[in-house]
Structure formats: C-alpha cells, structure tokens
Amino acid sequence: MIRHLSWDDFETLALSLVEQLRDKQYDLILGIARGGLPLSVYLSHKLEMRTFGTLLAKKTRSEEAFALARQDRLVISDYILPSCQPRSILVIDDVVAYGDLFSSVETLLHTHYGPELHISYATLFLDKHQVSQGPFGSILNTLYYAENIDNSRIWIVFPWENTPQANQ
User: Fold this and answer.
1) Cβ contact 117:110 at 8 Å
2) How far apart are CA 92 and CA 120, in angstroms?
C-alpha cells in the first residue's frame, strides 16, 4: 500500500515529536539527507535548537516504492558536522526500517566527537518490529517516533516528493 502524506499530515506527526522532545536538551541536530532534512529543519525551529549538521546516506536501490531490503548496502557519502564539542546530539530521519543507518551514524559521531557523546534519534515513521528483530534493536532505547508502521506493507510518499510513485 502506498500512503500519500499531506503537509497537514506531516505537521501533525512532527508536532507529536515536538511534544516528545520538548523537555530534552541537545547541543546539535543532525539531519539525514535527503528524507530527514525537512523534519530536521522543522524540529530545529520548533525546539529552538540552532546548531545543525547534515549527513548524506543512501540505501535504496532506486526511488521505486518498496525498493528497500535489509541486505542492501548502506552508503554514507558525505557529511557536514559543525566544529563544536556537543555532549548530546539528536539524529533525525524520515523513516527507520532496520536501524542500520542510525547505528552507522552513531559510530561516525563517536569517532568524530568522542566516546562520551549521548545520541538520540527521531523519525516520523518506525518499523519497530523489524528494528527490534534485527541487530540494531538497541537504538530503540533512545529513539522517538511519531508512528509505528509495517515498512514491508506501507510505503510513505512525502508531500515534497515529486516522483512517478507520488502521482500513483
């Protein structure tokens, strides 16, 4: 099933994350490009967190719906991290299907900023079952999400996507 999200849907889900994160303190927000950037910018404004970084990662084989598999190779090709010494970072993406991206980002951030760093995660959509059944289930302890989905049955089309699938 393909689920088309409207801008109102996006804002409703994002506001649920704002409520979950309102009392948390982070020194840096890291948005995963491409999909996590709209949510990252939204949260940085709503939570008044100004220090921002980005990371470019890709796992899907194509832009086609359901073109994602656990065995696909994750590629982190570039990142921009501010020259600060954060103690706490919030990493944001749009959908978490397996948790491998957040786990890889955690390793990169600890290498860059040091082992004492506290890292939390936020996403609009989480396949909690798949993450908990795989090798990256430990991220669930520090992950905030708006909605639990079955990523093998539901493909999310975001309002900013302008692809053939978005028009189906």
Assistant:
1) yes
2) 9
Q: Is the peptide bond before 70 cis (omega within 30 degrees of 0)?
A: no
Q: How many domains does one find in the chain?
A: 1
In tens, the pLDDT along 115-166 reads: 999 999 999 999 999 999 988 899 999 999 999 999 889 989 999 886 554 4
- We report the CATH number of the domain holding residue 69 as 3.40.50.2020
Q: Whole domain around residue 38: which residue ranges? A: 2-167
Tokens 């656990």, residue located: 70
C-alpha distances in Å from residue 98, one per residue of 81, 114, 127, 140, 151: 24, 25, 7, 11, 9
Using CA atoms, how far apart are residues 30 and 76, in angstroms rounded to an integer? Answer: 14
Task: Kindly report, residue by residue over 33-64, the tens digit of the pLDDT.
Answer: 888 999 999 999 999 998 999 998 766 554 55
Cα 125 from Cα 107, distance rounded (Å)? 22
